[in-house]
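The instructor's notes for this session suggest beginning with a concrete chain rather than abstract definitions. Hand out the sequence below and ask the class to guess, before any prediction is shown, which regions might be ordered.
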Amino acid sequence: MRPIEIRPNIFWVGVNDRSTELFEGLWPILNQGVTYNAYLIKDEKNALIDLSKETFTDDFLEQLESLVGLENLDYVITNHMEPDHSGALLRLRECAPNAKFLGMGKAVAMMKDFYNIVDNVEVVKHEQTLSLGKNTLKFIFTPLVHWPETMMTYMVEEKIMFSCDAFGSYGCLDGFLFDDEANNHGYFEREALRYYTNIVAAYSKNVLQAIDKISAYPIDILAPSHGMVWRKEPERIISLYKKWATMATEPAEPGVTVLYGSMYRNTERALDFALQAISEAGVPLEVFNVAVTDPSFILPSLWTKRGLLVAAPTYERAMFPPMVHALDIAEIKGVRNKAAGYFGSYAWSGGAKAVFEEYASKLNWDVVGTLEFIGSAKQQDVQQIQALSRKIAERSK
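After discussion, reveal the predicted structure:
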Protein backbone atom coordinates (compact mmCIF):
# COMPACT_ATOMS: atom_id res chain seq x y z
CA MET A 1 0.00 0.00 0.00
CA ARG A 2 0.99 3.60 -0.54
CA PRO A 3 0.65 6.38 2.06
CA ILE A 4 -2.96 7.19 2.91
CA GLU A 5 -4.09 10.61 4.08
CA ILE A 6 -6.13 10.33 7.27
CA ARG A 7 -6.73 14.07 7.64
CA PRO A 8 -5.05 16.94 5.77
CA ASN A 9 -1.27 16.47 6.13
CA ILE A 10 -1.69 13.44 8.42
CA PHE A 11 -0.72 10.17 6.75
CA TRP A 12 -0.71 6.44 7.44
CA VAL A 13 2.71 5.16 6.39
CA GLY A 14 2.44 1.59 7.65
CA VAL A 15 3.06 -1.79 6.05
CA ASN A 16 1.21 -5.07 5.68
CA ASP A 17 3.04 -8.19 6.87
CA ARG A 18 1.80 -11.28 5.04
CA SER A 19 4.95 -13.37 5.49
CA THR A 20 5.54 -13.70 9.24
CA GLU A 21 4.35 -17.08 10.49
CA LEU A 22 4.40 -16.40 14.24
CA PHE A 23 3.71 -13.01 15.83
CA GLU A 24 6.09 -12.53 18.77
CA GLY A 25 7.59 -15.84 17.62
CA LEU A 26 4.57 -17.54 19.20
CA TRP A 27 1.12 -16.72 17.77
CA PRO A 28 0.14 -18.01 14.27
CA ILE A 29 -0.72 -15.22 11.83
CA LEU A 30 0.37 -16.55 8.44
CA ASN A 31 -3.22 -16.83 7.19
CA GLN A 32 -4.29 -13.50 8.68
CA GLY A 33 -1.20 -11.30 8.52
CA VAL A 34 -0.75 -8.16 10.57
CA THR A 35 -0.06 -4.48 9.97
CA TYR A 36 2.58 -2.26 11.50
CA ASN A 37 0.89 1.12 11.47
CA ALA A 38 2.97 4.29 11.53
CA TYR A 39 1.79 7.86 11.07
CA LEU A 40 3.41 11.01 9.65
CA ILE A 41 2.26 14.52 10.56
CA LYS A 42 3.44 17.27 8.21
CA ASP A 43 3.43 20.68 9.88
CA GLU A 44 5.93 23.44 10.63
CA LYS A 45 7.68 20.56 12.39
CA ASN A 46 7.33 17.07 10.92
CA ALA A 47 6.62 14.22 13.32
CA LEU A 48 6.57 10.46 12.87
CA ILE A 49 4.56 8.34 15.30
CA ASP A 50 5.67 4.70 15.58
CA LEU A 51 7.69 2.73 13.03
CA SER A 52 7.80 -0.83 11.68
CA LYS A 53 9.39 -4.21 12.19
CA GLU A 54 13.02 -4.40 11.03
CA THR A 55 12.15 -6.87 8.24
CA PHE A 56 10.05 -4.20 6.52
CA THR A 57 12.38 -1.24 6.99
CA ASP A 58 12.88 -0.69 3.26
CA ASP A 59 9.13 -0.69 2.56
CA PHE A 60 8.52 1.62 5.50
CA LEU A 61 11.24 4.14 4.59
CA GLU A 62 10.13 4.17 0.96
CA GLN A 63 6.63 5.24 2.02
CA LEU A 64 7.99 7.83 4.40
CA GLU A 65 10.39 9.32 1.85
CA SER A 66 7.61 9.70 -0.69
CA LEU A 67 6.12 12.33 1.62
CA VAL A 68 9.04 14.03 3.32
CA GLY A 69 12.80 14.09 2.99
CA LEU A 70 14.16 12.23 6.00
CA GLU A 71 16.58 15.08 6.66
CA ASN A 72 13.45 17.19 7.28
CA LEU A 73 12.02 14.87 9.92
CA ASP A 74 11.99 16.74 13.24
CA TYR A 75 10.52 14.24 15.72
CA VAL A 76 10.24 10.46 16.02
CA ILE A 77 7.72 9.54 18.70
CA THR A 78 8.14 6.05 20.09
CA ASN A 79 4.88 5.05 21.75
CA HIS A 80 6.28 1.55 22.34
CA MET A 81 9.71 -0.01 22.02
CA GLU A 82 8.74 -3.60 21.22
CA PRO A 83 10.71 -4.54 18.07
CA ASP A 84 7.64 -4.99 15.87
CA HIS A 85 7.29 -1.20 16.28
CA SER A 86 10.88 -0.08 16.77
CA GLY A 87 12.76 -2.44 14.46
CA ALA A 88 13.35 0.29 11.85
CA LEU A 89 14.64 2.71 14.46
CA LEU A 90 18.37 2.24 13.91
CA ARG A 91 18.15 2.73 10.13
CA LEU A 92 15.91 5.74 10.61
CA ARG A 93 18.42 7.23 13.04
CA GLU A 94 21.07 6.97 10.31
CA CYS A 95 18.80 8.41 7.61
CA ALA A 96 17.26 11.19 9.73
CA PRO A 97 20.19 12.60 11.74
CA ASN A 98 18.31 15.79 12.65
CA ALA A 99 15.29 14.05 14.16
CA LYS A 100 14.79 14.10 17.92
CA PHE A 101 13.59 10.78 19.35
CA LEU A 102 10.91 11.09 22.05
CA GLY A 103 9.55 8.54 24.51
CA MET A 104 8.73 7.88 28.13
CA GLY A 105 11.67 7.33 30.47
CA LYS A 106 11.70 3.54 30.14
CA ALA A 107 11.41 3.84 26.36
CA VAL A 108 14.48 6.05 26.21
CA ALA A 109 16.37 3.53 28.36
CA MET A 110 15.31 0.78 25.96
CA MET A 111 16.57 2.78 22.98
CA LYS A 112 20.03 2.52 24.49
CA ASP A 113 19.62 -1.13 25.50
CA PHE A 114 18.20 -2.28 22.15
CA TYR A 115 19.94 0.00 19.64
CA ASN A 116 22.61 1.99 21.53
CA ILE A 117 20.83 5.23 20.61
CA VAL A 118 21.66 7.94 23.15
CA ASP A 119 22.10 11.16 21.16
CA ASN A 120 19.31 13.61 20.34
CA VAL A 121 16.89 11.72 22.58
CA GLU A 122 14.39 13.30 24.97
CA VAL A 123 12.25 11.92 27.76
CA VAL A 124 8.62 13.06 27.77
CA LYS A 125 6.21 12.91 30.68
CA HIS A 126 2.53 12.12 31.11
CA GLU A 127 0.29 14.87 29.67
CA GLN A 128 3.29 16.82 28.35
CA THR A 129 2.48 18.65 25.10
CA LEU A 130 4.49 19.28 21.95
CA SER A 131 3.63 22.00 19.42
CA LEU A 132 4.28 21.17 15.78
CA GLY A 133 2.96 24.53 14.58
CA LYS A 134 -0.72 24.31 13.72
CA ASN A 135 -1.10 21.06 15.64
CA THR A 136 -0.40 20.03 19.22
CA LEU A 137 0.48 16.56 20.48
CA LYS A 138 -0.15 15.35 24.02
CA PHE A 139 1.53 12.25 25.47
CA ILE A 140 -0.54 9.93 27.67
CA PHE A 141 1.32 7.36 29.78
CA THR A 142 -0.40 3.97 29.56
CA PRO A 143 2.05 1.58 31.22
CA LEU A 144 1.71 -2.17 30.72
CA VAL A 145 -0.53 -1.90 27.70
CA HIS A 146 1.37 -3.99 27.21
CA TRP A 147 4.98 -3.07 28.11
CA PRO A 148 5.95 -0.77 31.00
CA GLU A 149 7.07 2.11 28.77
CA THR A 150 3.98 2.28 26.54
CA MET A 151 2.21 5.57 25.89
CA MET A 152 -0.42 6.95 23.54
CA THR A 153 -0.11 10.18 21.56
CA TYR A 154 -3.15 12.45 21.22
CA MET A 155 -3.47 15.03 18.46
CA VAL A 156 -5.43 17.80 20.14
CA GLU A 157 -6.84 19.83 17.22
CA GLU A 158 -7.82 16.82 15.10
CA LYS A 159 -8.96 14.66 18.05
CA ILE A 160 -6.89 11.68 16.89
CA MET A 161 -5.67 9.11 19.41
CA PHE A 162 -2.61 7.18 18.26
CA SER A 163 -3.12 4.30 20.68
CA CYS A 164 -0.23 1.94 19.92
CA ASP A 165 -1.01 -1.70 20.86
CA ALA A 166 -4.24 -0.78 22.61
CA PHE A 167 -7.31 -1.41 20.40
CA GLY A 168 -5.20 -3.32 17.88
CA SER A 169 -5.99 -6.42 15.87
CA TYR A 170 -4.43 -9.10 13.74
CA GLY A 171 -5.25 -9.00 10.04
CA CYS A 172 -3.85 -7.25 6.97
CA LEU A 173 -5.55 -4.27 5.38
CA ASP A 174 -6.49 -5.53 1.93
CA GLY A 175 -6.88 -2.31 -0.01
CA PHE A 176 -8.57 -0.29 2.75
CA LEU A 177 -7.59 1.45 5.98
CA PHE A 178 -10.71 2.69 7.75
CA ASP A 179 -13.50 0.89 9.58
CA ASP A 180 -16.15 2.48 7.34
CA GLU A 181 -14.42 1.00 4.27
CA ALA A 182 -14.29 -2.56 5.62
CA ASN A 183 -16.98 -5.07 4.67
CA ASN A 184 -15.74 -7.75 7.08
CA HIS A 185 -16.15 -6.18 10.51
CA GLY A 186 -16.96 -9.53 12.09
CA TYR A 187 -13.61 -10.91 10.95
CA PHE A 188 -11.66 -7.97 12.35
CA GLU A 189 -13.52 -8.04 15.64
CA ARG A 190 -12.75 -11.76 16.01
CA GLU A 191 -9.09 -11.09 15.20
CA ALA A 192 -9.12 -8.19 17.66
CA LEU A 193 -10.35 -10.59 20.35
CA ARG A 194 -7.66 -13.12 19.45
CA TYR A 195 -5.06 -10.34 19.53
CA TYR A 196 -6.39 -9.17 22.90
CA THR A 197 -6.30 -12.61 24.50
CA ASN A 198 -2.90 -13.46 22.98
CA ILE A 199 -1.12 -10.19 23.69
CA VAL A 200 -2.91 -7.94 26.18
CA ALA A 201 -5.18 -10.05 28.39
CA ALA A 202 -2.71 -10.54 31.22
CA TYR A 203 -2.71 -6.75 31.64
CA SER A 204 -6.47 -6.22 31.66
CA LYS A 205 -6.32 -4.08 34.81
CA ASN A 206 -3.96 -1.72 33.00
CA VAL A 207 -6.22 -1.70 29.94
CA LEU A 208 -9.12 -0.47 32.08
CA GLN A 209 -6.89 2.19 33.63
CA ALA A 210 -5.83 3.35 30.16
CA ILE A 211 -9.44 3.49 28.98
CA ASP A 212 -10.28 5.60 32.02
CA LYS A 213 -7.41 7.99 31.21
CA ILE A 214 -8.40 8.54 27.59
CA SER A 215 -12.09 8.98 28.46
CA ALA A 216 -11.22 12.61 29.19
CA TYR A 217 -10.33 13.16 25.53
CA PRO A 218 -12.81 13.50 22.64
CA ILE A 219 -11.78 10.99 19.97
CA ASP A 220 -12.83 11.38 16.34
CA ILE A 221 -10.24 8.92 15.02
CA LEU A 222 -8.60 6.01 16.81
CA ALA A 223 -5.35 4.97 15.12
CA PRO A 224 -3.75 1.85 16.65
CA SER A 225 -0.45 0.25 15.68
CA HIS A 226 -2.09 -2.92 14.33
CA GLY A 227 -5.28 -3.24 12.31
CA MET A 228 -7.88 -0.78 11.08
CA VAL A 229 -8.04 2.94 11.74
CA TRP A 230 -11.40 3.68 13.36
CA ARG A 231 -12.96 6.92 12.13
CA LYS A 232 -16.67 6.04 11.96
CA GLU A 233 -17.07 4.19 15.26
CA PRO A 234 -13.95 4.54 17.40
CA GLU A 235 -16.13 3.92 20.43
CA ARG A 236 -16.90 0.43 19.10
CA ILE A 237 -13.39 -0.98 19.52
CA ILE A 238 -12.95 0.86 22.83
CA SER A 239 -16.14 -0.73 24.18
CA LEU A 240 -15.03 -4.19 23.03
CA TYR A 241 -11.66 -3.83 24.75
CA LYS A 242 -13.42 -2.64 27.90
CA LYS A 243 -15.76 -5.64 27.83
CA TRP A 244 -12.90 -8.08 27.34
CA ALA A 245 -10.81 -6.44 30.06
CA THR A 246 -13.61 -6.75 32.62
CA MET A 247 -13.71 -10.50 31.98
CA ALA A 248 -10.43 -10.82 33.83
CA THR A 249 -12.28 -10.38 37.12
CA GLU A 250 -16.02 -10.48 36.35
CA PRO A 251 -18.20 -13.27 34.96
CA ALA A 252 -17.71 -13.97 31.27
CA GLU A 253 -20.44 -14.74 28.74
CA PRO A 254 -22.65 -17.85 28.96
CA GLY A 255 -21.03 -20.86 27.36
CA VAL A 256 -18.62 -23.73 27.83
CA THR A 257 -15.18 -24.23 26.31
CA VAL A 258 -14.27 -27.90 25.91
CA LEU A 259 -10.60 -28.81 25.62
CA TYR A 260 -9.77 -32.39 24.81
CA GLY A 261 -6.89 -34.61 23.86
CA SER A 262 -6.81 -38.35 23.36
CA MET A 263 -4.11 -40.92 22.67
CA TYR A 264 -6.10 -44.06 21.83
CA ARG A 265 -9.62 -42.56 21.71
CA ASN A 266 -10.75 -43.77 25.14
CA THR A 267 -11.09 -40.20 26.38
CA GLU A 268 -12.43 -39.07 23.01
CA ARG A 269 -15.24 -41.66 23.03
CA ALA A 270 -16.29 -40.55 26.50
CA LEU A 271 -16.28 -36.95 25.34
CA ASP A 272 -19.33 -37.52 23.15
CA PHE A 273 -21.46 -38.17 26.24
CA ALA A 274 -20.22 -34.95 27.86
CA LEU A 275 -20.97 -32.87 24.77
CA GLN A 276 -24.46 -34.32 24.54
CA ALA A 277 -25.17 -33.35 28.16
CA ILE A 278 -23.93 -29.78 27.65
CA SER A 279 -25.84 -29.40 24.40
CA GLU A 280 -29.06 -30.65 25.97
CA ALA A 281 -28.69 -27.95 28.62
CA GLY A 282 -28.91 -25.34 25.85
CA VAL A 283 -25.54 -23.76 26.55
CA PRO A 284 -23.26 -22.55 23.73
CA LEU A 285 -20.08 -24.58 23.49
CA GLU A 286 -16.86 -24.67 21.53
CA VAL A 287 -14.69 -27.77 21.27
CA PHE A 288 -10.93 -27.79 20.67
CA ASN A 289 -8.55 -30.68 20.12
CA VAL A 290 -5.44 -29.41 21.90
CA ALA A 291 -3.17 -31.76 19.95
CA VAL A 292 -3.87 -29.95 16.68
CA THR A 293 -5.15 -26.49 17.69
CA ASP A 294 -2.75 -23.74 18.68
CA PRO A 295 -3.59 -22.03 22.00
CA SER A 296 -3.80 -18.75 20.09
CA PHE A 297 -7.17 -19.89 18.71
CA ILE A 298 -8.31 -21.45 21.99
CA LEU A 299 -7.75 -18.38 24.18
CA PRO A 300 -10.66 -16.28 22.82
CA SER A 301 -13.14 -18.98 23.83
CA LEU A 302 -11.46 -19.60 27.19
CA TRP A 303 -11.50 -15.89 27.95
CA THR A 304 -15.10 -15.17 26.99
CA LYS A 305 -16.97 -18.27 28.23
CA ARG A 306 -17.88 -19.03 31.84
CA GLY A 307 -17.48 -22.78 31.76
CA LEU A 308 -14.53 -25.07 31.06
CA LEU A 309 -14.39 -28.83 30.58
CA VAL A 310 -10.98 -30.48 30.29
CA ALA A 311 -10.86 -34.02 28.91
CA ALA A 312 -7.41 -35.57 28.65
CA PRO A 313 -5.68 -38.84 29.51
CA THR A 314 -2.86 -39.43 31.92
CA TYR A 315 0.56 -39.51 30.30
CA GLU A 316 3.37 -41.03 32.38
CA ARG A 317 1.69 -40.20 35.71
CA ALA A 318 1.02 -36.63 34.57
CA MET A 319 -1.26 -35.04 31.94
CA PHE A 320 -1.29 -35.38 28.16
CA PRO A 321 1.46 -32.86 27.20
CA PRO A 322 -0.52 -30.83 24.61
CA MET A 323 -3.16 -30.19 27.28
CA VAL A 324 -0.47 -29.08 29.71
CA HIS A 325 0.75 -26.60 27.10
CA ALA A 326 -2.77 -25.21 26.60
CA LEU A 327 -3.30 -24.86 30.34
CA ASP A 328 0.12 -23.27 30.79
CA ILE A 329 -0.87 -20.56 28.30
CA ALA A 330 -4.21 -20.14 30.10
CA GLU A 331 -2.33 -19.60 33.35
CA ILE A 332 0.08 -17.09 31.78
CA LYS A 333 -2.84 -15.09 30.39
CA GLY A 334 -4.84 -15.22 33.62
CA VAL A 335 -7.87 -17.29 32.59
CA ARG A 336 -9.54 -17.25 36.01
CA ASN A 337 -12.90 -17.76 37.67
CA LYS A 338 -14.32 -20.59 35.58
CA ALA A 339 -16.84 -23.28 36.43
CA ALA A 340 -14.62 -26.21 35.53
CA GLY A 341 -14.44 -29.98 35.45
CA TYR A 342 -12.12 -32.76 34.33
CA PHE A 343 -12.26 -36.35 33.17
CA GLY A 344 -9.83 -38.66 31.41
CA SER A 345 -8.60 -42.19 30.92
CA TYR A 346 -5.50 -43.88 32.26
CA ALA A 347 -3.88 -47.25 31.62
CA TRP A 348 -1.82 -48.26 34.63
CA SER A 349 -1.53 -45.17 36.84
CA GLY A 350 -3.54 -41.99 37.16
CA GLY A 351 -2.10 -38.51 37.49
CA ALA A 352 -3.81 -36.11 35.10
CA LYS A 353 -6.56 -35.27 37.60
CA ALA A 354 -4.00 -33.98 40.09
CA VAL A 355 -2.43 -31.81 37.39
CA PHE A 356 -5.84 -30.35 36.53
CA GLU A 357 -6.58 -29.65 40.20
CA GLU A 358 -3.29 -27.78 40.53
CA TYR A 359 -4.20 -25.45 37.65
CA ALA A 360 -7.71 -25.03 39.04
CA SER A 361 -6.33 -23.98 42.42
CA LYS A 362 -3.92 -21.43 40.93
CA LEU A 363 -6.58 -19.92 38.66
CA ASN A 364 -9.46 -19.92 41.16
CA TRP A 365 -11.64 -22.25 39.11
CA ASP A 366 -14.80 -23.55 40.75
CA VAL A 367 -14.35 -27.30 40.24
CA VAL A 368 -17.71 -29.03 39.90
CA GLY A 369 -16.32 -32.53 39.46
CA THR A 370 -13.40 -34.68 38.34
CA LEU A 371 -13.08 -38.29 37.21
CA GLU A 372 -10.27 -40.61 36.20
CA PHE A 373 -11.25 -43.98 34.74
CA ILE A 374 -9.11 -46.94 33.76
CA GLY A 375 -9.19 -48.04 30.12
CA SER A 376 -12.50 -47.25 28.47
CA ALA A 377 -15.37 -45.48 30.22
CA LYS A 378 -17.87 -47.91 31.83
CA GLN A 379 -21.54 -47.18 32.34
CA GLN A 380 -21.00 -45.68 35.80
CA ASP A 381 -18.18 -43.53 34.39
CA VAL A 382 -20.44 -42.24 31.64
CA GLN A 383 -23.08 -41.32 34.17
CA GLN A 384 -20.56 -39.35 36.25
CA ILE A 385 -19.20 -37.61 33.14
CA GLN A 386 -22.69 -36.58 32.11
CA ALA A 387 -23.50 -35.37 35.62
CA LEU A 388 -20.42 -33.17 35.91
CA SER A 389 -21.00 -31.86 32.37
CA ARG A 390 -24.56 -30.86 33.29
CA LYS A 391 -23.26 -29.05 36.38
CA ILE A 392 -20.75 -27.08 34.31
CA ALA A 393 -23.48 -26.20 31.82
CA GLU A 394 -25.87 -25.00 34.53
CA ARG A 395 -23.21 -22.84 36.16
CA SER A 396 -22.26 -21.43 32.75
CA LYS A 397 -25.67 -20.07 31.83
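Then share the key points. The mean pLDDT is 97. The longest helix spans residues 379-395.
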